[in-house]
Specification:
Length: 212
């Protein structure tokens, strides 16, 4: 088995970012801290890496993976042109933060995130390390770092036990945040898919069309 690379992001944030970037560009699955929980990350345009991410997670591609972006601009580049205004209006208010917004995917954007292939779940995390990584490698696919159907882990060591196949570990100590609020913005009215730290009803209301 290839030796595991375990980097302490609290002691060496620059080294942690460099290690994650190198691993992601090499097609590896990486354990990353976020502003909510630890995540399994890979580049969404790399089909082999995404297959590995789903295998490590023990999850079917019928359950799609979200994408972490460096800012609203990067997120907007992945959604259908007609939906950019809605994303910017909501994203500029609640991002960076624990909000995942599901929108129609821009035509021609090939991402291996699972089904449905016509949508994309987007988030700009309130975590400088993750945003710095996404600025360097582009949007990063991420899902919580636990086996599908099992409890969310709190520490990197717990993640290693649950997911022994992951080689690159970015460790930031204990993370006990809540998973993000998830809003389906592909329909009118918008729908709450998962309650989370942010006010779902307020976000849904912000996405409703205005009467002229």
């Amino acid at each position: 088995m290839t030796a595991r690379l375990h980097v302490d992001a609290l002691e060496d944030p620059d080294g942690a970012a460099d290690a994650a970037v190198e691993a992601l560009l090499a097609g590896e699955v990486v354990l990353l801290p976020t502003d909510t929980v630890y995540g399994l990350a890979a580049l969404p345009g790399d089909e082999r890496a995404m297959d590995e991410l789903f295998a490590v997670k023990g999850r079917s591609t019928a359950a799609p993976v979200a994408v972490l972006c460096t800012d609203v601009r990067q997120a907007a580049s992945l959604v259908a042109v007609q939906d950019e205004p809605a994303l910017r209006a909501v994203g500029e208010r609640w991002w960076p933060g624990p909000l995942t917004l599901v929108l129609p995917r821009r035509e021609g954007v090939e991402l291996h995130l699972g089904e449905p292939a016509a949508t994309v779940g987007l988030r700009v995390p309130d975590h400088p390390l993750v945003r710095a990584i996404a600025e360097r490698v582009g949007p990063v696919a991420a899902t919580s770092a636990n086996r599908h159907g099992e409890p969310t882990v709190v520490t990197a060591d717990e993640a290693i036990l649950a997911l022994p196949g992951v080689r690159v570990i970015i460790d930031e100590g204990a993370l006990e945040g809540r998973a993000s609020t998830v809003i389906d913005a592909t329909t009118q009215p918008w729908r709450v898919l998962r309650e989370g730290p942010l006010p779902a009803d307020e976000i849904v209301a912000a996405g409703q069309p205005r009467l002229l």
